Each structure stands twice: as structure tokens, then as C-alpha cells.
């Protein structure tokens, strides 16, 4: 199952206290997502942008977007009310790294609450470009959504990719995205980040390819692998999603290559609490009074 990595005590803490990296942590430790990142730099064919980024979150009512300062205030409130929250993550509602507010939020939290575990979820396009800033803020828990390691398959999943102001489509766009993803994952492993790969299971598009993805990332030294069943919408609205039995069978096919995460809850981009026991509705709304 991937490469054996000797973990230092701090890395072990970031694994053991994070409910998405350690199933045992689910019962004692919570996570909070701060929805500070509305924009996205790619278009996945399964995403309707009125909702949260479905690479990490389940679609629902779009999360209320917070400014970095509002995010910090929310962290204070969360720690006050729910002291078992040990992880602060940014997972949307768009692509975290496409929004400068994400890094500013991380900086504020790191300076004010250095004991918290910082976590980020990304499509990987900008990962090599900003990875050292993540390290500066001790954000060592990383999720990259990787749906293909073959640009021909990627081209069926992504409509376009926008990088440094230029829009790329088809195989060219998928190839650029893949190069950045693999480079970013490699850099993350070298920096001792704890890397989770999310792969959306899209029957008829990447299903036969998923074990190959697991093989590639397992050999690179990622920590675990999370298979997310497609939620059929937008260009993939007519695809029937995989059944739980198909998902279990896919985990079995991928398990020889990399540790499998099987307890993902498809949280919202503003989820707070223990996995499956969200409490965000009991927090105050920082935007109350600002709406028309
Ligand atoms: Fe949607 Fe997330 Fe894909 Fe962007 S990366 S298009 S927000 S699913
Ligand atoms: Fe963890 Fe899955 Fe929720 Fe992300 S969506 S915080 S991986 S349980």
C-alpha cells in the first residue's frame, strides 16, 4: 500500500487528530470548513457553480462566503462553543487556491491559533505555485482531486482550465491540469505534507481508469485515497452514479496500491463539527444584516 513513510511526532498528530485522515479521530475530534473561496479556475463537467465545489463537498445550498477576517472570527466562535474542533479546512465553495483570500485566512489563523491543524482541498492547478506559502502557515494536510492520469480521459471530464489568464480546452487543458497536479503532489510529498487524493467515480468515463490513478499516487507516497461517487449534474446529468456495491468493489481494486478512505461524509464547504454531526447552524451568521 504505497510507500512506507516514517512519521515524525507532529505529522502523527496531524494524522491522528484529523477525522478525514484517521477514522478513529472521527469520535473525538472535529473539523470546521471556512467558506472563504468562491471562485474557480477550471470547469468540471459534473459541477454546477451555484453550489459548493463537488470535488470535496456535496452540492447543497451555496455556502455563505466569509471574508478572511470573518473566517478568523468564526474560528474564535467555534473554539469557544466546540473545543473538540482541532482542524480548520478550506474546501470552497469554489477552488480554494484560485482565491487569494484562502492564503490570507490561513495566515490569520496560523498567527492567532498556531495549535490548530490547517487543511486545504484543491483541484491542484495552482498547487506548485503556492505550496511553499501553505508550508509557511503549517498547512500540512492536503487533499487533491485527481480524476485521471491520462489527458485523453481528463479531456472528457474538464471543459476548460484557466491558468495565468489563458484559457485551455480539450486535451491541452487536461494535460496542463494533470502536469500541475502531479508536480504539486510530488512537491507536497517531498515537503512531508499528508496528502489525500479524491477521485470522482464517473461510470463510463474514468471507472476502468481509477485503479491506475491509485497506482500512480500510491507510488508517489500519498497517504490515502477517497473515491467519491459522481453526483449526476451539468454535462454528466445523464450518467447513472455508481452503487455502494460498485464503490466497495472499486475500493477493493485500488487497495493494493494505496490506503483507502471509506468514511467520507461529503461535507458542505461550511461544515462544522464531528463528521456526520454538523453543528454549523448553531453559529452566528457574520453576514447577517449585510444582505439586501
Ligand atoms: Fe466545480 Fe470544484 Fe470542479 Fe471548480 S473544481 S468546477 S468548483 S467541482
Ligand atoms: Fe473529510 Fe470527506 Fe468531509 Fe472532506 S468531504 S471533510 S474528506 S469527510
From TrEMBL:
Molecular function GO terms recorded: 4 iron, 4 sulfur cluster binding; lyase activity; metal ion binding
GO biological process: molybdopterin cofactor biosynthetic process
UniProt xrefs under NCBIfam families: nifB (TIGR01290)
Organism: Methanocalculus chunghsingensis
Chain's role: Involved in the biosynthesis of the iron-molybdenum cofactor (FeMo-co or M-cluster) found in the dinitrogenase enzyme of the nitrogenase complex in nitrogen-fixing microorganisms. NifB catalyzes the crucial step of radical SAM-dependent carbide insertion that occurs concomitant with the insertion of a 9th sulfur and the rearrangement/coupling of two [4Fe-4S] clusters into a [8Fe-9S-C] cluster, the precursor to the M-cluster.
InterPro entries per the UniProt record, alphabetical: Aldolase_TIM (IPR013785), Elp3/MiaA/NifB-like_rSAM (IPR006638), MoaA_NifB_PqqE_Fe-S-bd_CS (IPR000385), Nase_CF_NifB (IPR005980), rSAM (IPR007197), rSAM_sf (IPR058240)
Protein name in the entry: FeMo cofactor biosynthesis protein NifB
Protein's UniProt keywords contain Lyase: yes
Annotated family: Belongs to the radical SAM superfamily. NifB family.
Pathway: Cofactor biosynthesis; Fe-Mo cofactor biosynthesis
Amino acid at each position: 500500500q504505497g510507500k512506507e513513510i516514517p512519521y515524525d511526532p507532529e505529522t502523527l498528530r496531524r494524522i491522528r487528530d484529523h477525522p478525514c485522515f484517521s477514522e478513529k479521530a472521527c469520535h473525538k475530534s472535529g473539523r470546521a470548513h471556512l467558506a472563504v473561496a468562491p471562485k474557480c479556475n477550471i470547469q468540471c463537467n459534473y459541477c454546477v457553480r451555484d453550489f459548493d465545489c463537488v470535488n470535496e463537498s456535496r452540492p447543497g445550498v451555496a455556502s455563505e462566503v466569509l471574508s478572511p477576517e470573518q473566517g478568523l472570527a468564526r474560528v474564535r466562535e467555534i473554539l469557544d462553543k466546540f473545543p473538540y474542533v482541532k482542524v480548520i479546512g478550506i474546501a470552497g465553495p469554489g477552488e480554494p487556491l484560485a482565491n487569494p483570500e484562502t492564503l490570507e485566512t490561513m495566515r490569520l489563523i496560523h498567527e492567532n491559533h498556531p495549535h490548530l491543524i490547517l487543511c486545504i482541498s484543491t483541484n491542484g492547478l495552482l498547487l506548485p505555485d503556492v505550496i511553499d506559502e501553505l508550508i509557511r502557515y503549517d498547512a500540512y494536510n492536503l487533499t487533491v482531486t485527481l480524476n485521471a492520469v491520462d489527458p485523453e480521459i481528463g479531456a472528457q471530464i474538464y471543459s476548460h482550465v484557466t491558468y495565468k489568464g489563458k484559457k485551455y480546452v480539450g486535451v491541452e487543458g487536461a494535460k496542463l491540469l494533470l502536469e500541475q497536479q502531479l508536480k504539486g503532489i510530488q512537491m507536497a510529498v517531498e515537503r512531508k505534507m499528508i496528502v489525500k487524493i479524491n477521485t470522482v467515480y464517473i461510470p463510463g468515463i474514468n471507472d476502468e481508469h481509477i485503479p491506475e490513478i491509485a497506482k500512480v499516487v500510491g507510488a508517489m507516497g500519498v497517504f490515502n485515497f477517497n473515491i467519491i461517487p459522481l453526483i449526476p449534474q451539468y454535462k454528466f446529468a445523464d450518467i447513472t452514479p455508481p452503487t455502494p456495491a460498485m464503490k466497495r468493489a472499486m475500493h477493493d481494486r485500488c487497495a493494493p496500491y494505496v490506503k483507502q478512505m471509506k468514511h467520507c461524509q461529503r461535507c458542505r464547504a461550511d461544515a462544522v463539527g464531528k463528521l456526520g454531526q454538523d453543528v454549523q447552524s448553531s453559529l452566528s451568521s457574520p453576514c447577517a444584516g449585510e444582505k439586501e
